[in-house]
Design goal:
Layout: H1 16-30, H2 35-39, E1 60-61, E2 75-81, E3 95-97, E4 100-105, E5 109-114, E6 120-125, E7 144-146, E8 149-154, E9 158-163, E10 169-174, E11 189-191, E12 194-197, E13 209-214, E14 220-225, E15 231-234, E16 237-241, E17 265-268, E18 273-277, E19 298-302, E20 309-314, E21 330-336, E22 339-347, E23 352-357, E24 363-368, E25 376-379, E26 386-388, E27 406-408, E28 422-423, E29 430-435, E30 437-443, E31 457-463, E32 470-475, E33 482-488, E34 496-499, E35 503-507, E36 512-517, E37 523-528, E38 538-542, E39 545-552, H3 563-566, E40 577-582
Parallel strand pairs: 1-34
Antiparallel strand pairs: 2-40, 3-4, 4-5, 5-6, 7-8, 8-9, 9-10, 11-12, 12-13, 13-14, 14-15, 15-16, 17-18, 18-19, 19-20, 21-22, 22-23, 23-24, 25-26, 27-30, 28-29, 29-32, 30-31, 32-33, 34-35, 35-36, 36-37, 38-39, 39-40
Bound molecules: calcium ion (CA) (2 copies).
Length: 586
Amino acid sequence: MKGKFKNGITGSMASIATLGLLIAAPLQAADGPTAQDLVNDAGSTGDVLTYGMGPQAQRFSPLAKVNADNVKSMVPAFAASLGGEKQRGQESQPLVYDGTIYVTGSYSRLYAFDSHTGEKKWEYDARLPDGIMPCCDVVNRGAAIMGDKVLFATLDAHLVALNRHTGKVVWNKAIADYQAGYSATAAPLIVRNMVITGNSGGEFGAVGAIQARNVDTGELIWERPVIEGHMGMLNGKPNGITGKTNASWQGDLWKTGGGATWLGGTYDPDTNLIFFGTGNPAPWNSHLRPGDNLYTASTLALDPDTGVIKWHYQTTPHDGWDFDGVNEFIPFDATMAGKPMKLGAKADRNGYFYVIDRTNGHLMGASKFVMETTWANGINLKTGRPNFVDANRPGPPNGSEKGTSVFSSPSFLGGKNWMPMAYSKDTGLFYVPSNDWGMDIWNEPIAYKKGAAYLGAGFTIRPVAPDHIGALRAMDPKTGKIVWEYKNKAPLWGGVLTTAGNLVFTGTPEGYLKAFDAKTGTELWKFNTGSGVVGSPITWEQDGEQYVAVMSGWGGAVPLWGGEVAKTFKDISQGGALWVFKLPKS
Ligand code: CA
Ligand code: CA
């Protein structure tokens, strides 16, 4: 009850109902991070309160105690195992608050560890029903925190709020029907009193949507489906159709049109916009759905209070390669052609790095960040559309026979997949975890059936370079040029962190957490965690020392596909542990 009357209301004249309303906010504020704390997260070095280390998700820390000169001395402080028999991909980013590290694990688990010792405080295991349909491993990417709650999404398409002290369930709401192929793996985004989430299921014809719910109760505030024709909701009432029905979809195809918003979103307090990416149109076979198929494979800017779409930019109109456009859109400010601008950047699954005016969605620049893009010869800066190479779109099926197979690069796993890039305010560079690989892809006949895969395509993935698949690339958003690159034999599948210590951190499937010089790309430090690193590293300050943490545990979508690519990671063991590092005490 701490802080009950902090605002000075003793109010004998106030009705009980009014008093209840008035004291609700201070109660929450007294016990845990406030909405304003979340907005300020990027600058507060003593905690990590948001997925992305700030609502803009730049993943930049102003800390420099660990830096390019001394990182070579960094050693483990402790490690904490997730335990259990189920060890799959650990793609989570930890949060740190008030002596506790909150981290999610595979199979929809959430853990609270002591941030000084790694001792487990509590663990929550979602009881998942039989019949969940995660397309690409049973991962989870992280939690959200506000007040006395820690929240995360589960594989059965639920959103769960737990008491952050005890791990006990406060509320648990279904955001969609898992039996229709919906699931959820992204870290929720909190804006003001709303917890905002997307959904997964684009391989099952699930329709992408974004929902905002009340953090305290889980009640739905608004919902915005991202496929043209579907009705949005606000406070229990219809709030307008998305786009214009049948403008870019024929017949009833929009009803199962895909566009899963499976990677969550970012929030820009500066423009008061939230940005969500949308996945592939369904089915994959593009010949079955003529048109641009809005708003699939796009970035959407929405009003966080109503869910109304303010602008959209479609990276892959009429996608035919599973180029989900979910990749994070990171707001940043820079001077372009002598003019200070509010921008945003996105390294898309289709292999292009886009710089966009985040106030209106206008394209400012687009450049390749992978070795090759067979599907398009560049992006037309006037129209914002790709210059498609028509011959490299897989052909239509011939009756019941599969259509002409083509070679496509990037592969469907993308020039960049889910793993978040980072932006350094110091160097002005984006650090993009990318992959060079291609695929043979062909189309097949398909019809929609609830709860069944809805692809109408087949594929074989393969490397395109003899020495690497993964490549961490430093991109200059002003020029579109690659400033440096680090090549990795196995595909890169982990997030990136950059710091004022002139450092860039990322993990490798081979098990290493690595640190690079942010300006030059020189490798400065590495540590083998015993299993592949596909999580996102963080850093914070505690007792005057700088700590770095990352999840270890090989998995994710990559090992689900075989072929030549699998040779690069066949000897990597699974695992599930939180690793924490710092400099030795001098
Ligand atoms: Ca912080
Ligand atoms: Ca997809």
